[in-house]
Amino acid sequence: MTGRQIAPGLTAFGPDTAPPLVLVHGIRLSATMWRPHARRLAPDFRVSTPDLPCHGALAARPFTLDAAVDAVRLAVREARAATGRRPLLAGLSLGGFTSLAHTVRHPEDVGALLLHGCTARTTGPLAAAYATAGRVGDLLGPERSARFQARAMRRMLPPESAEAVLSGGFHLPALTQGVAELRRHDFLAMAAGLTVPTLYLNGRTDLPFRADERRFLAATRTAGTPARLFHTRGGHLLSLTDPDRFTTLVRRAHHLLTADNHRGNKGN
Fold first, then answer.
1. Residue 196: its H or E element
2. 11-30 CB burial, b ≥16 within 10 A, e <16
3. Sign of torsion, CA 192 45 166 248?
4. Whole-angstrom Cα distance, residue 240 to residue 162?
5. The pLDDT of residue 183 is above 50
6. Mean pLDDT, all residues of the chain
7. What CA–CA distance (Å, rounded) separates 72 from 226?
8. Across the chain, where does the E strand assignment appear?
9. Which DSSP state fits 51?
10. Which residues fall within 8 angstroms of residue 107, CB to CB, at 6 or more apart?
């Protein structure tokens, strides 16, 4: 399936008459990782896939949380303008943290929020481990690191997912820049500011990124925001290792969160 380029670093799939989804990629990858999912979700949904700064078509731009939120905001507002409906915003890992920050700052354009693999505090040992990995990648150099990552993806992923990831390339500076920026922010505290229906989705074996999942859930519910926590088989790269299952979960999340939104609107 061929998408439509809406702007540099922003592609859309599916008809404007369908319910809108915005899918935000993980660290070092790009929006091309979502091509297998767009094939499965369109034409039932209108799927938008933005690149974050320092990734994909925006690789030349440095990563900051403000710039990443701006990239997501462009995608969300464009999806709402094109369809007349507020989208379900879904993010993986770095894309999840960015989607959370965006929705706290700009809740008016988001219908609901699906956060996958991003319920660990970014100030703890997990962030330190990723920062070390970034330094190792810097020592190896971009070409050797890219070859290593490409071999690993081909071993780990089904061909469809590996092709989608590799077509967008690996953006190694994003690991160092992204982790350094995430460590400056308290996303658990941000979660208490969410006001749209939220679903946290974690793979059962993704233990590092599940470390604070109950605290994120409780923080989101603090102000009465509808929030759910789902576990499913798989790990941190579930969306890539099993795109069929992940897209089924996205459809289910859309159904549940839309119902939560309708109930909330009736209560207002």
1. none
2. bbbbeeebbbbbbbbbbbbb
3. positive
4. 8
5. yes
6. 92
7. 22
8. 4-7, 10-13, 20-24, 46-50, 88-92, 112-116, 198-203, 227-232
9. P
10. 194, 195, 196
**Paired residues of 23 in beta bridges:** 90
Identify the CA nearest to 21 among candidates 5, 40, 7: 40
Q: 268 falls in which pLDDT band (50, 70, 90)? A: very low
Residues in the chain: 268
pLDDT higher than 70, residue 34: yes
Give the whole-angstrom CA distance, residue 79 versus residue 44: 15
Taking the C-alpha atoms of residue 243 and residue 161, their distance in angstroms, rounded to an integer, is 8
Structure tokens belonging to residue 54: 């320092």
Task: Tell me, yes or no, if the pTM score tops 0.90.
Answer: yes
Terminal C-alpha separation, the chain: 41
Which is nearest to 219 in space by CA: 201, 253, 194?
A: 194
| Strands ordered across the beta sheet of 4-7 | 4-7, 10-13, 46-50, 20-24, 88-92, 112-116, 198-203, 227-232
Q: Is the pLDDT of residue 137 over 70?
A: no
Q: What is the DSSP string of 12-26?
A: EES-TTSPEEEEE--
Task: Tell me the C-alpha distance between 93 and 268, whole Å.
Answer: 32
